[in-house]
Amino acid sequence: QVQLVESGGRLVQAGGSLRLSCAASGINGDIKTTGWYRQAPGKQRELVAVITDGGTTNYADSVKGRFTISRDIAKNTVYLQMNTLKPEDTAVYYCNAEVRRYFHTYSYWGQGTQVTVSS
Fold it and tell me: Most exposed of 12, 33, 37, 107 (fewest Cβ within 10 Å)?
């Protein structure tokens, strides 16, 4: 069974940094993309950053230059380094993996980790 477990979220002051981790297990297919999404209260879930199996990255405009997505393939772990945090970055951050298996693509989500940025 595929599991994505996020960690690293906590309360931090504006201007501070955090690193989120997403550890994947039970993957029985090819991970095509792994991404970080976030959802603030009363708002829709939005893409923050994504990394493809080829290593290509893409970021939301609101986090470009501040956040960096990376991965450790050997550990099946994806990271989100968040610098210069702002109060508007406050949200639950979710890890997502798109897994290709037998000509189908399956989408998996973690349980989320809370990031709170105080002003």
Answer: 107
Closest CA to 34 of 18, 17, 57: 57
Of the candidates 2, 4, 74, which has an alpha carbon nearest to the alpha carbon of residue 35? 4
pLDDT tens digits for 20-41? 999 999 988 899 999 999 999 9
Nearest to 8, CA basis, from 71, 94, 101, 66:
94
Going by C-beta distance under 8 Å and a sequence separation of 6 or more, which residues neighbour residue 17?
A: 81, 82, 83, 84, 85
How many CB atoms neighbour CB 95 within 10 A? 26
Beta-strand pair 67-72/77-82: antiparallel
Closest CA to 40 of 2, 85, 83, 93: 93
Between the alpha carbon of residue 106 and those of residues 29, 33, 54, the distances in Å are 9, 11, 18
